[in-house]
Amino acid sequence: MSSSRPSQSSASSGQPKQSARIIAQTTVDAKLHADFEELGSSFDYSTSVRVSNAVSGTEKPRSDELTTAYLHHIQKGKLIQPFGCLLAIDEKTLRVIAYSKNAPEMLTMVSHVVPSVGDHTVLGIGTDVRTIFSDTSAAALQKALGFGEVSLLNPILVYCKTSGQPFYAIVHRVTDSLIIDFEPVKPYEVPLTAAGALQSYKLAAKAITRLQSLPSGSIERLCDTMVQEVFELTGYDRVMTYKFHEDDHGEVVSEMTKPGHEPYSGLHYPATDIPQAARFLFLKNKKLPINLTLCGSTLTAPHSCHLQYMENMNSIASLVMAVVVNEGDEEGESSDSSQQQKRKRLWGLIVCHHTTPRFVPFPLRYACEFLAQVFAIHVTKELELENQIVEKNILRTQTLLCHVLMRDAALGIMSQSPNVMDLVKCDGAALLYRNKIYKLGLTPMDFQLHDIISWLYEYHLDSTGLSTDSLHDAGFPGALALGDAVCGMTVVRITSNDILFWFRSHSAAEIQWGGAKHEPGVYLGRATRMDAIHSLQIILRNVFKGAEATDANADSIHTRLSDLKREGIQELEAVTSEMVRLIETALAPILAVDVDGLVNGWNVKIGELTGLPVDKAIGRHLLSLVEDSSADIVKKMLNAALQGKEEKSIHFEIRTHGSRRDFGPINLVVNACASRDIRENVVGVYFVAQDITGQKIVMDKFTRIEGDYKAIVQNPNPLIPPIFGTDEFGWCCEWNPAMAEISGWDREEVMNKMLLGEVFGTHNACCRVKNQEAFISLGIVLNNAMTGQESEKFSFSFFTRSGNYVECLLCVSKKLDRDGAVTGLFCFLQHASQELKQVLHVQRLTEQTSVKRLKALAYVRTHIRNPLSGIIFSRKMIEGTKLGEEQKQLLDSSARCQNQLRKILDDTDLDCIIDGYMDLEMVEFTLQEVLFASISQVMMRSNRKGIRIVNELADEIMSETLYGDSLRLQQVLADFLLTSVHFAPNGGQLGIAGSLTKDFLGVSIQLVHLELRITHTGDGVPEELVSQMFGGEADDTSEEGISLLVSRKLVKLMNGDVQYLREAGKSTFIVSIELAAASKPRVV
């Protein structure tokens, strides 16, 4: 709901509102900074925060000039930290255009240990930067400066010409120039001998491996592991995970400290604690030795406010890493770079504090940055998992609420279980419906609710929803009278006069503030929560408006269901036929097994590879066809697939037969997929394989050959897979013909380029990967292989030169020298064939069609219930009128049919019926009630065909009081009657006869054996349909066959069975069941 006070309302939690909040917060940050600079040591932070919050709600913000000056001051600082120096050089001429005051002393100081020969270089404006360093260093620096993604080469080890002092050069590209930070290599450090991010990544290899090994489902465990790894990696006194909440205030969610330090875990800090300008810079530069930075430089000196902050925290040194996560949906395989990038959000920070001066070398800081990026990917996945769980729970609750609404109209959300309090976390709820108030839990008094409603109509008349954590802050005049029991409120307007409320009690005392208390005002809350509320709002609006419209046509519902099923089956048959044809003719080996592991699918290609024809393979167990060494792998894969867990890239060996026996086993890499029927039940497993025998032969030869490998790698033979390689420093040193063919880039174009960044990258690389996450994942795989870790096959994708998107598997092997040291990597690609892609595409189409049909059936099933409720309501209204006996009997038959329909709609799992696991509902009834309701369901069709129905049952049987599941018996009889009418000729006859016998089980309990015979004239039911009723032809069961099968299974649940007897000119369904009966008391 909108508000007359802009600072107290929110209509959306989307991006525009977030941007407005950031702009407003930046204005507050600017004012605080101006006050700090003006007042100096007399500055009172807590008082300033309270004054800023009070002013922001009543006055217009100060001029934009203050904010602009503040941002300029933050981003354009002129001081650097003294442990290094800085040069700004022209990108084209490599001449110095600016330098820090300490640069001449650090870079051109003459060494007294090793006297220089001749004049030493003088650093000044216009000096060629190459003249300051040794020849080899100058060459390395010039090569790096010509690199597109120059930051990927950081740090670059250079040596001063005059002193021989080693420095790490950290290069950043800005507009029309390059900024180079120079950090001296400490004597105790072992300097990196080559440039490149891959060298720094090695330092974080252990930590990355541990993060990746964590099971998903706990973001707390992830944060604890991250701070522990950074704590061990950097050696700081304190490491914290600092999370930003939706209203921009922060919280320490995880922490590790050395003994004797005060814990900060659980403390909250206001939004002004870390200014918005600093957060923007964190998105640009993800690792900082201080909290603020400038233009990518890691040497920027802290501002005065940050120095005061560090003093307040009893800290001398700090290192902060940004945790930047993705937001929004990612586009598909579009080549448009603007569509590939997800919107970024600063989730939080990894903060390190130290009580004494501490310097962290750049390679270790770079490793920490990469570790933070890996951590951010895992945080993104955890957030997505949390959102999925929340949305799933909300959808489940909404579905249950819908069912409640159908049973009890609008008030069901308050009186039934679950109710509206299960949808939103709250302490109470209230509904204003037709001028009456219905309440749950802790809520205001009725007169207070009317005051709130009046306030909403006065200040929020034009909106339909509002959420606030404090009614007092939102401006409600009666908030103080509500006390602590009611503090926050969420409200939605359903119609002009109907309103739904949720209330929350006071909870501010639960938050411990480490700074001034944050004042968030009014905001809408989590988008997922408001989406759930909005969905319920729409549902209730439709329910309220449609409360009086309850007519429905049962025939049209059945027709719609039948048409829907028929269309789905036809569509599935067409897609299935095409898929079978593709599988049989595919060049990829494909096989399938049933739930017992017996082969029931064996295409031509797998037959050619193994020498085993299809007629000999069908019926054999899969484990008997694979090598003994692969039996355990195949068994585990088969068990997992039968449980619905699909396995990918599993390697095993399969035996050869006949003329192929001498060639040895075939090496396959397979994807195991569960085969499901239209009800999503697993009925088998099929394996889409790729023959890698040739590749394995190549790799075996490669491991045996110690000399020249080029004859193998550069061989154009199609058996050679795409191969590329890198040296130990990350430069591309191999690119075979198969790789050139698949990528479109020739060997000469990629050799001696940086593999990460130039060859594979996100922007100007030769082979562009999909997004930053894919780039980081590739770096992790290469780093793990370089450090000697065994790596599984990695799913890898990239765009070729022509823009085609290639999906493949990447296998990485390390190169070793004579001493066993890693000298580089070999990377092998496994690329799926076009036929395999087509098979997988058809498979996806089949799954999509099945899901679409199931969704449609679920939709129809759900929306039948509403008109069914209308029919029941109409019947109940008729029951209240004066009726004759015949009318009452007709009305009773209608009620039984309605109850039967409702029970059938609840049958979501036919397997329970077919397998005999369903519970029967035992009630008292007479056969007359059941039979009349069953006959009424076929009367319209029998009348159209002129078929006469004759009831030959004795009155004693019809009036006998029985005990059993009457609705299931009614369903069975109606099904057999309908089948008999369907296959009887026009003008024929249908007769119903039967017998009843009793066995006494005690004084008052009797076991009834009931046999009913439904006889119809004509040729009878086709043999195929009868066979399906008895469970035959399970793979090709028709709609009528499924119905008859279910009816027979229901009869068997009643300890009975069904027979079908053919005679001359007529046929008979014989239904025998066991029921219970009670002896009638004797009249004395």
Structure write-up:
By secondary structure, the protein is α+β, with helices and mostly antiparallel strands. It folds into seven domains: 6-75, no CATH class; 85-191, PAS domain (Beta-Lactamase); 202-389, GAF domain (Beta-Lactamase), CATH 3.30.450.40; 400-545, PHY domain (Beta-Lactamase), CATH 3.30.450; 588-667, PAS domain (Beta-Lactamase, 2-Layer Sandwich); 695-832, 2-Layer Sandwich (Beta-Lactamase), CATH 3.30.450; 886-1078, Histidine kinase-like ATPase, C-terminal domain (Heat Shock Protein 90), CATH 3.30.565.10. It has 34 helices and 36 strands. The strands form eight sheets. Strands 9-10-11-6-7-8-17 form a seven-stranded mixed beta sheet. Strands 2-1-5-4-3 form a five-stranded antiparallel beta sheet. The longest helix is centred in the middle third of the chain and has 47 residues, at 362-408. The two termini are 76 Å apart.
